[in-house]
Amino acid sequence: MTRIGNSRKRRLSSLSLFTGAGGIDIGLEHAGFHLRLCVEIDETAAQTVSRNRPGWSLAEPGDIHKLTPREALRQAGLRPRELVLLVGGPPCQPFSKAGYWVNGDSGRLKDSRSKTLNAYLDLVEYAQPRVLLLENVSGFAFSGKDEGLRLFKAGLEKINKRKRTAYKPQVLHINAADYGVPQLRERVFVIAERSGNEFRLPSPTHGPCSSTGEPYRTAWDVIGDLDVDIWPVDLNATGAWADLLPSIPEGKNYLWHTRKGGGLPLFGWRTRYWSFLLKLAKNQPAWTIQAQPGPATGPFHWCSRKLSVRELCRLQTFPDEYEILGAYREAYRQIGNAVPPAIGEMLGLEIRRQFLGEQVRRRPSLVPERRADCPPVKRRPPVPRSYLHLQGEHADHPGTGAGPGAQRRTA
Fold first, then answer.
1. Per annotation, catalytic residue among 92, 209, 303, 313
2. Which of 184, 234, 256, 257 could in theory staple to 252 by disulfide, Cβ–Cβ 3.0 to 4.6 A?
């Protein structure tokens, strides 16, 4: 019996780089894959993985730049070409859209964190996995700013020549909400199979109306049962804008209080980042859960408070028994960096079906069920007096590359 079990684990083996809290790996586990090794440098994230999956092996060292490909495969108990799936999402900050707000551009290949792409490729060359899967933010494949993607494709071409493999990378643009995740979350996945076989992304299973399949899963579907009138004090919104938040409707952000919105003209159009005072709507998918929230960074709960760690996990489709360790900001960062497990499960099932020729179920088990008891929107309070002095004419954002930050850099 032991030999059969080990054979199955080898046949559906996976190795995870930049594991984080283990989001995509939880999904792959539900799809039948067996994680042989995870590589994670962050101590808190590694503790989260150990607490929830003590049977998963954590690489030593957890720094991908100090762990040789040979040693990684040795710790996984595999030899070259035995690994079925290599999966990982290198740090996304070098290619993140958020970098444009801070610096006018993100560091991209100049950012030292982008070196993780080379580390990923080094392991591909040594391990020669049957399938490789790489995840990143949509900015990784921005037209004209796709240096990271081009570097990755060029690296695979060199590996093909040296190792006589035929990896043919395909870029998949996925909005998690289209596949049953209760969150509008756009990400890029690059997938390639060793013999050059192509992957067909399944058609979306969910949409904004019934004509596109099942309706989108909503915030209420997954956290409605956690809705309470009294919550812990540490979930109260804080900062200079906390008292303005209740005056913003569900599903809206600060743009409500501009001349083009329906509220008071307190801000200029598009002069703030999108997630500023951003609020969930009960009857819609959540906005993207980010990894680095600030006091005014949403999405906030429709009750104008911060989301709890359990609510954040639900919106990402983590199983309820999964515990994210660390203080609130640490937990939020781990959850925001994760791939929704339901997306990992969907891709894992399709990899087994399309590349391994197996008969598998089509529906991911981690997709939440619908609720039919969504309550109506509550009445909003008026803007507090302390913000009324902001009323007036406000200049709109002048456009890409013409804002104050860009002008300062030019000067």
1. 92
2. 256
Could you tell me the CA-to-CA distances from 341 to 25, 147, 347, 393 in Å, in that order?
Answer: 7, 28, 10, 45
Active site residue 313: no
The residue written with tokens 């005072």 in the block is 277
Do strands 13-17 and 34-39 pair parallel, antiparallel, or not at all (unpaired)? parallel
Question: For residue 133, is it within any domain?
Answer: yes
What distance in Å separates the CA atoms of residue 53 and residue 332, rounded to the nearest whole number? 20
Task: For 317-362, write each residue's pLDDT tens digit.
Answer: 999 999 999 999 999 999 999 999 999 999 999 999 999 999 999 9
- Do 100 and 153 fall within a single domain? yes
Domain identity same for 201 and 248: no
Measured between alpha carbons, how far is 93 from 115 in angstroms, rounded to an integer? Answer: 12
Angle between helices 116-127 and 69-76 (to 10 degrees): 60
In a domain, 314, yes or no: no
- Which residues does residue 39 pair with via DSSP β-bridges, in sequence order? 17
Number of domains in the chain: 2
325 part of a folded domain: no
Q: How far is CA 22 from the centre of its chain?
A: 11
- pTM score: 0.92
Is residue 220 a part of any domain in this protein? no
Residue numbers of the domain that contains 284: 232-307+373-402
| Phi/psi at 203 (5° precision) | -65, 150
